[in-house]
Amino acid sequence: MRSRRIAIVTTRCQPELGGIESHVAEVTGRLVRLGHDVEVLTTDRSGSLPRTEQVDGYLVRRFRAYPRTRDWYASPGLAWWLLRHRYAAIHVQGVHTLVPPLAMLLAWLTRTPYLITFHTGGSTSALRARLRGPQFAVLAPLIRRARVRIGVSEFERARFEEITGADVRVIRNGGALPSPGRPVPVERDLVLSVGRLEAYKGHDRAIRSVAELGRRRPDARLRILGAGPDRERLERLAAEIGRAHV
Hints:
By secondary structure, the protein is an alpha/beta fold. The protein contains seven helices and eleven strands. The strands form two sheets. An eight-stranded mixed beta sheet has the order 3-4-2-1-5-6-7-8, sandwiched between helices. It has a three-stranded parallel beta sheet with strand order 9-10-11. Helix 2 (76-84) runs parallel beside helix 3 and helix 3 (99-109) packs parallel to helix 4 (126-145). The protein is globular and about 60 Å long.
């Protein structure tokens, strides 16, 4: 297979926590092992993460995003980089913030082949949830121009095929299993709930469920891994239940 220089454009990546962040790490590592030269182009609102960083054989480039306290992720630096540098292909991850439409637009203007994985989900804001339909309809021309459109579920496939009138492939999320030669210690009775700490993610249901589970398995406990605006509420609820830690 001929090596290609590929850019993966994503609003956030590891060490930040989340589903897209994990997905990007899994996909990028596999592309590197296939022999491709991969760069992850992402943003950093805090300004505290390294501007460039080598991770597992690929390069991460981080650009400042504004405003710092909102999740709009306007990033002039990332836009300027895409205008000045060429890649064989651009893989756009996500569709919610300002980063994906910017990347698709610049890929189209520079005649760079691009593909998109949608990664849609809910929203804590009821207004944002109602606006998602019109938002995706506005993006439909750019989405249709993608060489490949990828949904991680049948729901996404149906939704974006209806919006765009274009075919969507379903490639579900997955992850690497531990190597047989490197066993991972097993913590019995430990349940993990992993994801952004947003109300719509349903971590509160996991906290309430572990109380019922504890009646059947006395040592059952829950650990929630993630960051987000719902942390304080979840911590209070976990303290009440007594078996969960955020």
